[in-house]
């Protein structure tokens, strides 16, 4: 399997749980399962009901992940104690700006540092592609996501796109990592 380490976090609560976040093609079985879980959750929350497999299939077609590969982007999978339980991606909007997308942590692993590990890895990947800032859009009902971004230095900005599900827009400057 073509997996490239981007970042590994140390011990995170509870106990000695450990997150490892690696660059991984969005087409691997683990990445595909996580992207499907992401669509099931965001669509289900939006529609306030469970979604069907056909609706997930359509969402994956409507919002392809094709750009989430270097040099236009990156996709990562987060594993907690070896289990794939998180994912996320970045897409370059322009040479200086990366967009955060498809950030997801399985409900069973929330509160263990997975969101922070994903953000750190994706910010590092964006810097590696030359980006100096990260942007994202999200919805009002994704309260936990908005809180995660705010805790990690993202600030709300005016709309930079007109996505059909965009209700809040955030940005963060990406400082160069110390050498």
Number of strands: 8
Mean of residue pLDDT? Answer: 91
Computed Rg? 15 Å
Distance between the ends: 29 Å
Widest β-sheet, arrangement of strands: 1-2-3-4-5-6-8-7
Biggest pleated sheet: 8 strands, mixed
The helix/strand order is EEHHEEEHEHEE
- Measured by DSSP, the beta-strand proportion falls in 25-35%
The portion of residues assigned to helices is: 25-40%
Shape descriptor: globular
**pLDDT below 50 for ≥5 consecutive residues: which ranges?**
1-5, 7-14
Structural class by sheet pairing and helices: alpha+beta
> Count the helices. How many?
4
Walk me through the structure.
The protein is of the alpha+beta class. The protein has 4 helices and 8 strands, in the order ββααβββαβαββ. It has helices at residues 29-47, 53-62, 114-128, 143-151; strands at residues 4-12, 17-23, 73-80, 83-94, 97-105, 133-138, 155-157, 168-173. Strands 1-2-3-4-5-6-8-7 form an 8-stranded mixed beta sheet, sandwiched between helices. Helix 1 (29-47) packs across helix 2. The longest helix has 19 residues, at 29-47.
């Amino acid at each position: 399997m073509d997996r490239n380490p981007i970042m590994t976090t140390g011990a995170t609560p509870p106990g000695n749980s450990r997150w490892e976040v690696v660059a991984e093609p969005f087409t691997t079985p683990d990445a595909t399962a996580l992207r499907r879980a992401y669509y099931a959750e965001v669509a289900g929350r939006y529609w306030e009901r469970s979604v069907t497999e056909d609706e997930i299939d359509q969402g994956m077609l409507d919002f392809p992940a094709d750009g989430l590969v270097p040099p236009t982007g990156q996709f990562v999978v987060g594993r907690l104690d070896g289990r794939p339980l998180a994912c996320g991606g970045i897409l370059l909007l322009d040479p200086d700006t990366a967009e955060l997308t498809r950030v997801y942590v399985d409900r069973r692993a929330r509160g263990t540092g997975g969101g922070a590990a994903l953000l750190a890895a994706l910010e590092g990947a964006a810097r590696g592609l030359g980006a100096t800032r990260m942007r994202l859009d999200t919805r009002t009902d994704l309260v936990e996501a908005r809180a995660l971004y705010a805790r990690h230095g993202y600030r709300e900005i005016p709309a930079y796109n007109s996505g059909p599900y965009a209700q809040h827009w955030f940005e963060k400057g990406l400082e160069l990592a110390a050498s």
